[in-house]
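@channel sequence for tomorrow's demo:
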Amino acid sequence: MVNKIRTTHVGSLPRTKELLEANLKRSAGEISDEAFHEILERSVDDVVKRQVDMGIDILNEGEYGHITSGAVDYGAWWNYSFTRLGGLTMTDKDRWEIGDKIRSEPGKIRLSSMKDRRDRALFAEAYNDPDSGIFTGRKKVANPEFTGPVTYIGHDQVDADVSLLKQAMSKAGASNGFVAALSPGSAARLPNKFYEEDIDLVRACGEALKAEYKAITDAGLTVQFDAPDLAEAWDSVVPEPSVADFQAFLHERIAVLNESIKDIPREQTRLHICWGSWHGPHVTDIPFGDIIEEILQAKVGGFSFEGASPRHAHEWRVWQDHKLPEGTVIYPGVVSHSTNAVEHPQLVADRIIKFAELVGPENVVASTDCGLGGRLHYQIAWAKLQALVDGAELATRELFSPSE
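structure tokens (generated this afternoon):
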């Protein structure tokens, strides 16, 4: 029986200096696998214990097993798949340099490059001004292309993620954990030079990623599907498509996800919808209300989404008009990953209460808008998580009667 507002987050947490240095050495081949694993294990133990001590109820390993390029890295959630999927050929091109010749046609959506984003075009001067605050020194990361049949080759890596988290949870006395994994549609966003149709690539990614999803849930953990392809991708379509065409695009990808998870327990799954981590205006984001019907077709145990960012905090209203499927919960973001201001706990509580009044407090798990690691300075990220926990405690006092 739920008698409190539970807390979680979306996945990525700030890496320590030691782990960041080990990541760089690993990429350069300057550290042995054994030495890296020792640092990784120690780091996971520490980050799990810190979450437990703070009061996070559903925690993870900080995505520490997903290699990152530095303290600022908006793409580690995606880049980790490059060594876990077969059928890829590495290029020397960063994601800001690929796909810029792709254009959409009526009735058919194709994703363009990062640099062609409509938000970027609308605020071109700000995006190109290094003093605007939009970018914070992200390093270039080489991206691969799909050149052959997609397979899953990351068994050892996902097993390590799961094992390290389970061990750390046991040491810290934690019982509820999750691991983030790419959705099929997100995995398929690299250039496709093998499959005739993009949806064939999405299906192939879904088939391959079944192994990752099952490894996580077989260990008794929840798998979180990172799916910015369901919201953030809207801004990557040039020219802007019709809402109906984008909804059809989502429908196909949700169907693939449902097929890939049909054999795992629904209650061990949650879907994260994201409008992107970059610290920009986001005025070209698609409204949540335009995609919520398709999102709710996902056969998952819960829905994670932005509920605190300046562009999406008002969209709690979608739950006035849409019924939460039976047996599912929501993980609304009540602290933002895209601003340095640390939310006041009372504001966090107010946001939680608003959602609780619409779907029931037992169906609300307070969360973050997106991952905090790689997007915010570590001091600010941890302060936001503390505000999340403190706000949940305030909300609990108001929403639940004291136990007798």
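heads up for whoever presents: The mean pLDDT is 93.
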